[in-house]
Amino acid sequence: METRGLWWNIHDLPYYKEIFYSLFFISLVFFFYGFYLKLKTWSQGKRKNDFFEITNRILIMFEQAFLHKNWGKEKLPIIAHILVFYGFFVLWIGTDILTVQDRMPEYFFHGVFYKTYSLLMDLSGVLMLIGLGFFAYIRYIKRPKRLDNYHNDWIQITYFFLFVVLGFLIEGIRQSATNQFEPYAPIGAMIGALFSPLSYESQKNIHFTLWWLHSIQTFSFVALIPYTKFSHMFISPVNIFFKDLKPNGALNTPFNLVEILAMENPPEDFAQTVNKIEDFTWKDLMDLDSCTACGKCHEVCPATNTDKPLSPKWVILDLKQIMYEKPMFPHGYKGSSARSDIDLPSQISQETLWSCTSCRACVEACPVGINPLSKIIDLRRTLIGGNKAPNNLLNTLKNIRSRFNPWGQPPEDREKWTEGLDVPKIESTNDFEYLYWIGCAGSYDSRNQNIAKTMVTLLKKANIKFAILGKKEKCNGDTARRAGDEGLFQELALKNIETFKNAKVKKIITHCPHCFNTFKNEYPEFGLNDTAVFHHTEIIWELIKLGKLSMTKEIKEEITYHDSCYLGRHNGQYDAPRNILNKIPNIKYIEMENSKEKGTCCGGGGAQLWYEAPGKQINVMRLNEVKEAKAKIVASACPFCTIMLETAKTLDKSQSPPQVKDISEIVAMALE
After folding, report:
1. CATH number, domain 257-385, options 1.10.390.10, 1.10.1060.10, 3.30.300.210, 2.50.20.10
2. N or C: which end of the chain has fewer CB within 10 A?
3. Report field, pTM of the whole predicted structure over 0.85
């Protein structure tokens, strides 16, 4: 009967089981105590009361943690992690099966089950070694810029390598000593053949020594898990489970101005700024512990890629250092509580925080559900609360507060662009289906004023009943919120929502993706309900499908499309703009390498249109990518992107930089 003794060559040691299980129990004490310390640390963060959609959370956790969904475009690290992850998982289950068999009176460890078990254990070990080899190649030969190799990073690879190698050696020597060579355990059989020249006693002594070394290594591994990078095996899936399921484009709301104003005695510090590490939520603190420094966020960050002070990876790791009182990452585990004596804004440089474009690339890239953007915005709120921001940003916020637009132009000039046009206004008509929200850029920036005029022409041509607010329109508050002025954002939100309700607005067309995101994902929290919000490319595509806009003129040009972060990553709308362009006769559409979910930011989001961080210019980097694609025209669907790309053109030294046109302008060119 095909089987083997569970304690072969070990049972001669007195009290062998007592010693084995005592060591196992001690390792579990260290294991659970370590995670107790982590839970104690996380619990010092603020409460986060949005635990819902349990079924959806389980599905997301399974897809990301076990199926490696959305792990990026680089295949080798994904393959390496899959091989190590599932190889180790099978070996771990195999070890548990031995423990179960040892405690059960019925013997099942024989026959077909034993053969299958042995084969799977051998295959898993081989796959794990291949994965570890890939990891070693990536980290120490390929050496991508996203990885920083420290003196103890080799420990993880070496530990797992020894796990597998010792297991194979023990298996092989046992087969040789018992003269039971198992073809269904091929690796063990091959190793056993190498040891066959040794005497029986020598083989028993070597097996005994390696068996206990392997056991001690296993117990030390279990004990060390909470105190090392190994902890991510448990923390990462849990962190993914608790990830924020709000719309991608919605920031967290630290306070509700309506509720504050309704209080008889409102608290003085209702802004809930983040001054100490425990001012973050418990989920934020779990985020910090989930980070393995893989650098995927670092790799995709447009600020990092243009030599600006910001690296989302290092924002997270710096906060983690503070949380555990570590003087320098990664010098081990210390302490069981969050630091309460460190002023966070003084630890993270202001230039770092103001370099973020809020493009959300870092959030999308993280395989374990960490949100660096939310921490950056929280810290910006603290800086704004202390009046610590670049002067031009402070002036921009002052313009928004006093004149309801970041340009600081007179509010009465907001509808000046309509002079000579028959543009219906809500104040003079009730016969409209859509409110066409022009936005500050369309109202005051000359380039985007022309785009707004084009959009008006298209809506009229399609016989769409629409109206604009004109002078009643105010900034939507996106810039204020991303800059950290939460109070100003909420004031604007409440005023705009009141205007929408008074005008009985049920459908909104926005030109700007930032307005689109704000109305669709953030205003509902403040009372904008039962109102459908559409981006102008969505409306144009719908009108084309319905035959209300017929593009019959040929455009024989090479055209590419630049994805707006707030239309794409924040709202998942990648198809409508491309569908429109591909419907134009004889167009040659070119897809850039960095597109859709991996699209490069224009550099204008997150209040960056009014502040230029140190380093190279992001918009120039993006324009160079357009040129590399050999496109003559780059289509945009965002006024910020249009402004940033047009600005990059003025800095371009080539004789023929690509033209920048809004989708609506290209559609107008192709109409009958």
Report:
1. 1.10.1060.10
2. N
3. yes
